[in-house]
Design a protein that fits this description.
Length: about 210
């Protein structure tokens, strides 16, 4: 299998479990998150995947997810590039707050707007549009050239950095991508043409 790109949202983190806005904060995986990453690795191994290059964000939960996947694949020495361009959306003043606390402070309507609009950021933070503005240049200059050259590439990142990639790859509208859920620890396998278009996409689930 060549020209394959696999995107994996990190396993559940401690702050996911506590329903906190995480962003660029750096909590570790929960036991469930570890299990999700291990399962992702086993699913990829069962399908015969072997990777030539890995990319991940600068944050622990994505790094550890990739490490656990590679342990299952027996590819602990895979060349891996870590870059904050793949970091989660920065939630600014929402970071570290419970979602209920945020609603009390700013009101339901504003918090929903920040969470579900494409281009309206929370105070001091990023919108999905802002996130895409750093993710996509990195994809086009670092990730896509590797895939185009025939390499199989795995990317472990975050809900919104992966949404930015999905929106670009699948040519989705702003509304369509906001309605798209990205589950933790589920590998999304893309086979791309030489022009970067999606030839096939599937999720690996147990």
């Amino acid at each position: 299998m060549d020209n394959v790109l696999v995107l994996v949202r990190h396993g559940q983190s401690e702050w996911n479990r506590r329903n906190l806005f995480t962003g660029w904060c750096d909590p570790d995986l929960t036991e469930q998150g570890v299990a999700e990453a291990v399962r992702a690795g086993r699913l990829l191994k069962a399908q015969g995947f072997h990777f030539d290059l890995g990319f991940t964000s600068a944050l622990l939960r994505a790094n550890r997810t990739l490490s656990l996947i590679l342990d299952e694949l027996g590819q602990q020495d895979l060349e891996t590039i870590r870059d904050q361009a793949l970091n989660e959306r920065n939630y600014g003043e929402l970071s570290g707050l419970n979602k209920d606390e945020a609603r009390v402070k700013w009101g339901d309507e504003k918090v929903l707007l920040w969470r579900r609009s494409y281009d309206i950021p929370p105070p001091g933070g990023e919108s999905l549009k802002d996130t895409a503005a750093r993710v996509l240049p990195f994809y086009k200059t670092r990730i896509w050239p590797a895939v185009k050259s025939g390499k199989n590439v795995i990317v472990t990142a975050h809900g919104n950095s992966i949404r930015a990639l999905i929106m670009y790859l699948e040519e989705l509208s702003a509304q369509q991508i906001l309605e798209r859920e990205v589950a933790t620890g589920v590998p999304a396998v893309y086979r791309l043409t030489m022009h970067g278009h999606v030839e096939d996409r599937r999720d690996l689930v147990a």
